[in-house]
Write a structure and sequence with these properties.
The complex is a heterodimer of chains A (239) and B (116). Chain A has 239 residues and is mainly α. Chain A is built from 13 helices and no strands. In chain A, helix 2 packs across helix 4 and helix 8 packs across helix 12. The chains are: A mainly alpha (239), B mainly alpha (116). Chains A and B meet through helix 2, helix 3, helix 4, helix 5 and helix 6 of A and helix 1, helix 2, helix 3, helix 4 and helix 5 of B.
């Protein structure tokens, strides 16, 4: 082996390389997003993921090797979720004042997310295992995978659908709110969190800490609600 | 920095333990966030915690990149039912966001209208 090949073999098997690639890809994606004024389509998750996937394909690296390094970033999702408590307490006076509309809108949005997914899937003739996998698409990955496997769905597909839903929600958020002339940041954030979980919440934090707070709340509460709701609605579907 | 990490990880750990002991279908970090919120609303937010929490949340998008890369591995699953799934995801997510925002606005207007 040439020295370069030896070096590559060494680096490609260590966490350092792919951790660094993940951070650099995100840094570039975030620069591009900032350059476009955080426009809806300049989504940093999508751009950074595309960059990483290009690197993996160019070097013939598998996901397992990549994740050895990327797991350190992935792990931070836990502490980041806990950190949502800080803006929540900072904005608590806003939350308390809006508690009634918040809870009513949460229930309406949660039911809509599950019911429309099931109804459309049923109308388009999807098989039952795909249907029940689709139903919890608007909540965070661990909850969605739990619900899907509990009802005989496909957990790995649930993860795919959850991430895709988050990306769709993050991209659609500001154009949709503009179209409906909803300028209230609380309503914008809550919608993003309820319908598009963490990726929607990340988008809401790009808009403002207040929007992010309501998104984090929407995400957390919808997790509870969807876990109760999906088994019920699947039952109603009579399958 | 270290004390902030201890607080965040400690709450996550407590959340994970609570979820396992009570056997509820909720992720540990969500319970950890609720515990931290309860503690902070009683004792106030320590100054060391604020910059770390906001720093992490400002870059929340980064944390979804590894999972999203994983999703690309499952490309064939999506392709099999691709068109139907894409239509459902876009329509259902958009409608759910619209309903959430409109209901929030409607109820917020009604509540503030009543109190004025």
């Amino acid at each position: 082996m040439t020295p370069v090949e030896t070096l590559w073999v060494y680096l490609a098997e260590r966490p350092l390389l792919w951790l660094t690639v993940t951070l650099v890809a995100y840094w570039i994606a975030d620069r591009i997003a900032a350059r476009f004024g955080y426009a809806p389509l300049a989504n940093p998750v999508v751009m950074a993921t595309a960059l990483v996937v290009l690197c993996l394909q160019a070097t013939g690296t598998g996901f397992a090797t990549y994740f050895e390094g990327a797991q350190f970033v992935h792990f931070l999702l836990g502490p980041a979720t806990v950190a949502l408590a800080v803006p929540f307490v900072e904005n608590f006076h806003h939350v308390r004042r809006a508690i009634v509309p918040l809870l009513v809108a949460l229930v309406a949005g949660s039911v809509t997310a599950v019911a429309t997914a099931l109804a459309l899937g049923y109308a388009l003739g999807l098989p039952r295992d795909i249907l029940v996998t689709l139903a919890p698409k608007s909540v965070t990955t661990p909850i969605a995978m739990g619900i899907a496997s509990q009802l005989g769905g496909i957990p790995s597909l649930a993860a795919v659908l959850v991430i895709s839903t988050g990306v769709v929600g993050a991209i659609v958020l500001t154009p949709l709110m503009g179209l409906m002339k909803v300028r209230d940041e609380r309503a914008q954030g809550l919608s993003a969190g309820v319908a598009a979980h963490g990726i929607g919440t990340a988008r809401a934090f790009q808009l403002s800490p207040l929007a992010g707070t309501f998104a984090g709340l929407g995400m957390g509460l919808n997790g509870f609600l969807t876990a109760l709701l999906v088994p019920l609605l699947v039952l109603l579907l009579g399958q | 920095m270290i004390n902030a990490l201890v607080v965040l990880l400690g709450c996550q750990l407590l959340g994970e333990v609570a979820v396992r002991l009570l056997d509820v279908p909720v992720p540990g970090p969500v319970v950890g966030a609720a515990l931290l919120a309860a503690a902070l609303s009683v004792r106030g937010i320590p100054s060391f915690l604020t910059p770390v929490a906001h720093g992490i949340l400002r870059n929340l998008s980064l944390l979804f990149v590894p999972a999203a890369v994983g999703v690309v591995q499952y490309g064939p699953l999506i392709v099999e039912h691709g068109v139907s799934l894409a239509i459902i995801l876009v329509v259902s997510t958009t409608v759910a966001m619209a309903v959430t925002a409109l209901v929030f606005r409607m109820v917020a207007n009604r509540v503030s209208g009543r109190s004025e």
